[in-house]
Write a sequence for this structure.
């Protein structure tokens, strides 16, 4: 009697291994075809810092930024000092700072895609300069500003401290807004689509509007519909607070 010693037929990789191998091949091909590759994914963004002074008779500061943080600090200066921290991946942005009719405007252009470059601004200003700030994405910080101010960001937080501005408006699509006033404002409007809207003011009587779609509503100051001082805090989702101090 003969005994068969034939080996079982060889089997290929398991279905799980074949799936992983195929997925890896697809990912590698996608990286090559897209022109990204691992090298560019690991490449650090480039950065440059430049500072300059702007003199003359100025009445307003305007900033129009696509992406980047903005810090405005009122000091004892007679003119404006600007520090730009420029970030880019391919080509550096072209920054501008023209003065027209007493208005200093800071902005920039990205040679290629907007998301491949940006500018962070730190600006020192004199007293009573009006401030109008816009950034598509980035935080805005205000310190001791006394001139009329407006701050808008599409996505980011807005914070202000030791403010003495009589009129102030701060708005963000997504992020917290918190302003602290050293003197009672005539008008303060804070709005956010998602986040907390909080204002701190000296004790006084205000015409207050506080609205929230989801969150706490707190008002600690005296209120009257006939008050000459007006406060609006509004959020789609988050706390709406008017606090003393």
């Amino acid at each position: 009697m003969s005994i068969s010693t034939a080996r079982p037929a060889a089997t290929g990789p398991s279905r799980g291994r074949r799936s992983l191998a195929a997925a890896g091949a697809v990912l590698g091909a996608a990286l090559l075809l897209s022109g990204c590759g691992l090298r560019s994914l690991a490449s650090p963004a480039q950065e440059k810092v430049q500072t300059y002074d702007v003199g003359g008779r100025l009445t307003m500061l305007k900033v129009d930024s696509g992406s980047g943080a903005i810090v405005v600090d009122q000091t004892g200066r007679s003119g404006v000092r600007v520090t730009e921290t420029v970030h880019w991946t391919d080509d550096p942005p072209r920054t501008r700072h023209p003065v027209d009719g007493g208005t200093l405007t800071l902005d920039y252009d990205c040679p290629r895609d907007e998301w491949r470059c940006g500018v962070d601004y730190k600006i020192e200003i004199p007293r009573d300069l009006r401030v109008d700030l816009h950034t598509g994405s980035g935080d805005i910080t205000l310190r001791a500003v006394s001139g009329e101010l407006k701050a808008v960001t599409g996505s980011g937080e807005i914070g202000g401290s030791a403010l003495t501005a009589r009129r102030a408006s701060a708005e963000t699509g997504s992020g917290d807004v918190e302003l602290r006033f050293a003197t009672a404002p005539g008008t303060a409007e804070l709005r956010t689509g998602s986040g907390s809207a909080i204002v701190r003011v000296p004790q006084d009587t205000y015409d207050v509007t506080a609205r929230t779609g989801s969150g706490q509503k707190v008002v600690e100051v005296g209120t009257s519909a006939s008050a000459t001082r007006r406060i609006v805090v509004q959020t789609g989702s988050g706390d709406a607070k008017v606090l003393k101090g």
Remarks:
- The chain has a mean pLDDT of 87.
- Residues 35 and 236 are 41 Å apart (CA to CA).
- Residues 15-34 form the longest helix (20 residues).
- The chain has two helices and 21 strands.
